[in-house]
Amino acid sequence: MSSRIPWISMLITLAMPAAAALAGQTVCPCTADTSVASVGKETQQNSGTSEKIKIKGRENQPLLKFDLSAIPKDAVITAASLRVKVTDPKFRLNQVAVSSVSTDWTEGAGRSVDGEGEAGEGACFAWPASGKSAWAAPGSAICDVTWGNGGSVENYGFAKREDGDWYVIPVDPRVVAAIRADSYGLIVQDESGWWAPKLSNIFLYSKEKKGAAPTLTVDWADADKAAPGPVKDIRVSTDNLDDGQVVLEFTCSGDDGAQGTALGYEIRCLTGAKITAENWAAAKPAPRWQTPRPKVAGQKIRAWITDLKAGQSYSFALIAYDQSANRSALAATDVVKLPKTTPPRLAFVKPIELQSGSPSEFGKMSLWATDELTKVDPVSGQVLDGDGYKDTKARSGSHIWDGQNHAIRLAAIKGEIVAFNLVIEATDGSLADIKVKPGDLIGPSDAKIPAAKLTPHRVWYVQGRDSKNAGYYGDPTPMLDKPLQIPAPDNKIDGQKNQSIYVDLIVPHNIPAGTYRGQLAVESSAGSGSVGVQLQVMDLQMPDELSYIIELNSYGWTNAKDYDGWLAMHRLAHLHRTGYNVLSYGHCESVTLPFMPTLEGEGADAKVADWTEFDKWMAPLLDGSAFADLPRGATPIPHWYLPFHENYPGKIRQHYAKPEFFENEPTNENSVLDYEAWKDKLAATDVDIRTAFDKTWQAEASAIASQYRDHFLDKGWTKTQFQIFCNNKHYFREPKTQNVNENGTWKNATSLWTLDEPSFGRDFRALSYIYSVFKKPLVGAPLNVLTRGDVSRPEWQGDRCDNSLDLAVVSSALYRYQALLQRRQITQGDKLWFYGGGNGPEGDNTALVAMYIKTWTFGTDGGLAYWTSFAGADSWDKADQLAVVHIKGAHGFTGPVATTRLKAQRRAQQDIELMNLLARQSGWNRTRVAHAVASAINLQSRTVARGADDPGRTSFGNIHAADLAKVRYALVQEILAARKGEANK
Q1: CA end-to-end span of the chain, whole Å?
Q2: CA 590, CA 742: separation in Å to the nearest integer?
Q3: What are the residues facing 376 on neighbouring strands?
Q4: CA distance 265 to 279
Q5: What is the mean pLDDT of the segment spanning 881-886?
Q6: Beta bridge partners of 219
Q7: Cβ pair 316, 286 in contact under 8 A
Q8: Is 927 helix (H, G, I), strand (E, B) or coil?
Q9: By the 8 A CB rule, do 457 and 502 touch?
């Protein structure tokens, strides 16, 4: 349209909606329906011929197909609604979502409903037709092709009851347009997820019920005559991908030329020649589930195309189309040859050969050693290997104990902390006045590692909590600052014959590479003895800044006056290359840190009144000055929770659309909140999160967030990753079972959603909305701010958090939904952490390290093995999985005290730093390193969890400390070889 007559354009634009409304309406009959179940054995059951289908949160979702043939093929869909009938008047719907399905499916002949009846073949959660078919990639599920995943389109709205038991559910016109053009029916989800138990299992009539079948009403307008424009700037990348894969990145065209949003793309590839209009038909189409939906014109988008042939040459081309089947001009790449590489291997993996011999004996005392991960039974002297104590002949020799020469042999790089366990045996049953005295290590040209760099710790033993693990296990490691006895009078163990001393060896940054030798002396009532210590320092530097974050998560700092203890805890985390992260708020309006800045004013006029106390506590951590004397120097803390959530800075009760949601009603016969009835009320009258918070709350969020950003930038705090994290959950309003740590203040619980470990669609949407409000004023260079969500169920996230959630922290779903998570990483740039799986004191620390390594090979950049790393004082006596740091004192010790599990996590972090260093070398990338590591050691594991919210425990069937030592050494040699190769070019 010519710009010289804009008024004509405006008249036409204003007239279009009226014309569209008059074009036509069609009621489309249901042609196929079933219901898929995502729980247990029901994931493989079909209900294609049942008269009723089930809808229950994420657990049960109806699948529906409709006959759309009465809609003109080139018509534009302008409105649509799904009409369904519940089987009982007591059933209710409110917040409901619908999505297109990107893979075709078969209705099936099964009659299974609620786990009962004949299962039959046909569409189910696990497959679209039969066990021989897949929704997307092998091992995928229906969640891979719905709810915004796999090129699907979704929307949500609020169902309206009419004509008794019928409900009308709004459907976005774009969803229907996608079904007509390239997809296969609808899937429906109750986004509220939790009606009261008697109402939670909701059933709808299927097409098999005469007079009650679902229908789809569609309004349509005349055809769109303008074709989409061609996509621009197609870029083909194979960076950090497996062979036979590419990422296509391009700029979206519009629906009408360069304006609006097209409906879809068709992506094709052709071997050996550039794609043109003439050979387009001969090119191979990419699967629908690998084809993303267009964004608004001008935005960048990525498509991940797999199952190509390595070493083959391809051209890739795209055509955009709209609702009226208008197609853009073809946009194609030149012919690109894909790499074909040899399978990556760690060439330097080899057995560590040491001479077998015996312990070093001195009268009634024997000395020997194990590596830093291996625990020794204080009674039998057996070592913990896998699932229990075993006689592995470690006393005679191992990968670190040279039993012939009575020496401890270690290898490390500069700036690393390497460790070992010195085992002192009382061969006659008892020893007294035991003292451990490290000596200097002397190396090339008389270079010296001072004795002060070797720090002995006493290994304290705790008793297992169950009959299977009723023995004693070394875990806390307080500093060794006084003589010991065997048996120890304070750590009472019947029959104790040996004591482990955990020794940290800090390798200085600036020393020559080479072999360093010295002695570790032990004095006792039986006399004196020593063992040799030999350290091979390799010519590589351990980075001071962490490229992989291991988190020690905590929910508050309870001692408001203990500033010194606060710094001590952060220093302990820093020394162990971890991050101590403390949430500043609780579920029930509590503030869990004593130094949060005071605020004044409201809305846009709100401001931080005083930063003094905040800066006192946080500045040394964020500028690194608190750590200047530690091995990594003045490196700031790696990450920190920001305080922003639904109740900070603005109070949700004062600014939410329905304040009655916070009333403690209805009540039970004891005049206490009836939690189940409260949930039911909320589910029935829920509101749209996008309009629920008033403008004052939004303005206050923006004002205070902006002031945080300005203050941090003014201070130069740009090296720490700041995390916006919503943790609160609605179930803290349940009086009888929750709020142990909230002092019974359930009446003040602020969240109306499950924001941590979100369960249902409404939870993901709330998380997305809250994050979008805070992201706008906070996120952006040079400040490193991201939004974090602890997501136990990433399969149900879909696109609900696109562009709002930066970092997903995932539990055991990391393994089950690996392809889905990897696609988000590649196409959207999502970051990934893992959580859960950490062992207790009874566990083999080799498995703890292996778990971090395995999750790194799955694409994570950090993680937390424990949902909290701190437990009470009784954990000095009884094993406690969550006592990774003993922050409370006992038996004369004061906290914080590291455990062997904290030290194992340091080892894991250092090993992963080596993997990241290798990934940056020529000829390597992260994917190749991941494959090489996985092929060098057996990373098969099993995680046992009681459900998605349970972080569980992970065990490895066949991995040993020596295996990890071989891989660690090989990584260093590969890095050195790669650097040498580059230098020789």
Answers
A1: 59
A2: 8
A3: 383
A4: 18
A5: 96
A6: 25, 79
A7: no
A8: helix
A9: yes
Token couple for 850? 């292996």
The identity of residue 712, as a single letter, is F
DSSP secondary structure of 675-715: HHHHHHHHHHS---HHHHB-HHHHHHHHHHHHHHHHHHHHH
Cβ distance 453 to 877 under 8 Å? no
Q: How many residues does the chain have?
A: 985
Which residues are paired to 834 by β-bridges?
810, 863
Q: What is the pTM of this model?
A: 0.94
The two tokens of residue 939 are 């990373």
Phi/psi of residue 62, each to 5°? -70, 140
| Tens digits of residue pLDDT in 836-865 | 999 999 999 999 999 999 999 999 999 999
Q: Torsions phi, psi of 31, nearest 5?
A: -110, -20
Beta strands in 222-372 (DSSP E): 232-237, 246-251, 264-271, 284-285, 300-305, 313-321, 331-332, 336-337, 360-362, 365-371
Helix H or strand E segment including 504: strand 498-506
Tell me the C-alpha to C-alpha distance, in Å, between residue 763 and each of 74, 294, 585, 659, 729. 37, 26, 19, 19, 10
- Say how far apart CA 428 and CA 202 lie, in whole Å: 72
Give dist(CA 61, CA 84) in Å, integer. 13
The pLDDT tens digits for 749-782 are 999 999 999 999 999 999 999 999 999 999 999 9
CA distance 241 to 257: 33
- The residue among 57, 59, 197 whose CA lies nearest residue 677 is 197
Taking every pair of Cα atoms in the chain, the longest distance, rounded to a whole number of angstroms, is 106
**Buried residues in 100-112 as b, exposed as e (16+ CB within 10 A):** bbbbebbbbebbb
Q: Is 427 left (phi over 0), alpha (psi -120 to 50) or beta?
A: alpha
Token output for 910: 């250092």
Query: Which tokens in the block code for residue 6?
Result: 């804009």
HEC per residue, 366-384 = EEEEEECCCCECCCCCCEE
Please check the confidence at residue 718 and state whether its pLDDT lies above 50: yes
Inform me whether the pLDDT recorded for 61 exceeds 60: yes
Q: Check whether the bond before 777 is cis (ω within 30° of 0).
A: no
Distance CA 143, CA 508 (A): 50
List Cβ<8 Å contacts ≥24 apart for 385-394.
385/844, 385/846, 385/960, 385/961, 386/844, 386/847, 386/956, 386/957, 386/958, 386/960, 387/844, 387/955, 388/469, 389/471, 393/356, 394/368, 394/370
H or E segment to which residue 461 belongs: strand 461-463
Task: For residue 311, give the 3-state DSSP assignment.
Answer: coil
Cα 932 to Cα 346: distance, rounded to the nearest angstrom: 6
Strand partners of residue 552: 580
How high is the pLDDT of residue 250? 98
Q: What is the dihedral of CA 236, 238, 244, 247, to 10 degrees?
A: -50
β-pair partners for 899: 476
Q: What is the dihedral of CA 130, 133, 137, 141, to 10 degrees?
A: -10
What's residue 22's pLDDT?
A: 63
Q: What average pLDDT does this structure show over 731-746?
A: 70
In whole angstroms, give the CA distance from residue 292 to residue 120. 33
- The string of DSSP codes covering 80-97 is EEEEEEBSSTT----EEE
- Quote the distance between the C-alpha of residue 145 and its chain's center: 21
